[in-house]
Design a protein that fits this description.
Elements lengths: L1 E5 L5 E8 L6 E4 L6 E6 L4 H10 L1 H9 L5 E2 L5 E4 L2 E7 L5 E4 L2 E4 L4 H28 L5 E5 L6 E3 L4 E5 L7 H13 L8 H11 L3 H10 L6 E2 L3
Parallel strand pairs: 2-4, 5-13, 7-9, 10-12
Antiparallel strand pairs: 1-2, 3-4, 6-7, 8-9, 11-12
Length: about 230
């Protein structure tokens, strides 16, 4: 995999990825973080892929213009936390506390403290939801981990290990619980056949609204950058 740029103002980073299975050049703009990836056959010269990207410049920039604006989290930022819009404010005590409609953060550099707090809160909410659904299913999971995944909101391994994106704590609570039900259902149905979706419905109820919310708005959860 190699990195290049599409010239212009601003220049657009390009990721070139070779694949033994590729028969032609394919182009993808990630809806989560705006990464532009060109997948090309192993024997194709890089120059041809770059020329292809240049031909598609208008299409690429059009997609990028619709990406959500990045928000560098700091004092004054309004964050969606478990369905509530909370403003980040200076706190006098160490750590992070929710007081009214504010997230009070001690210290002068709030981003990393907030990220740690949100990860802990996400673990609490996701563990509670997963425990609930696993109990309904009568099939326990082996462990639960959190990551900042770009390509999926959760997964379930054949060994019963659940993984979730901690950014689900920035989504409405019903969306977080839907993802938990989805992954716990994989403990029994390791596929997306009709029987799987029937099981999700049994565990969660009508899942269409939270699934559609995530498809339409999920990229917004990645717009928040926690860098001091």
């Amino acid at each position: 995999m190699s990195a290049h740029h599409l010239p212009g103002d601003p220049p657009v980073p390009l990721i070139l990825r070779r694949s033994a299975r590729a028969r032609r050049i394919s182009l993808r703009v990630s809806s989560l973080d705006g990464r532009v990836t060109l997948t090309l056959p192993k024997s194709l010269p890089e120059r041809e892929a770059l020329d292809f990207a240049a031909e598609k410049e208008g299409w690429i920039r059009g997609h990028l213009s619709r990406q959500p604006e990045v928000v560098a989290v700091s004092f004054g930022t309004v964050l969606p936390v478990a369905g509530r819009a909370l403003r980040v404010a200076q706190g006098h005590a160490r750590g992070v506390r929710i007081v009214g409609e504010e997230l009070l953060v001690g210290g002068k550099r709030p981003a990393k403290s907030l990220e740690r707090y949100l990860k802990e809160l996400a673990r609490d909410h996701l563990a509670a939801a997963s425990d609930d659904y696993a109990a309904q299913l009568g099939q326990p999971f082996s462990r639960l981990t959190l990551r900042d995944t770009r390509s999926r909101w959760g997964s379930c391994s054949s060994a019963g290990a659940l993984m979730y994106s901690w950014r689900l704590i920035l989504a409405p609570p019903e969306v977080l619980r839907y993802v938990a039900a989805h992954e716990v259902a994989h403990l029994q149905e390791m596929n997306h056949a009709p029987a799987f979706w029937s099981l999700v419905h049994t565990l969660y109820g009508d899942y269409r609204a939270p699934r559609d919310w995530l498809r339409k708005n999920g990229s917004q959860l990645h717009r928040y950058i926690f860098t001091d």
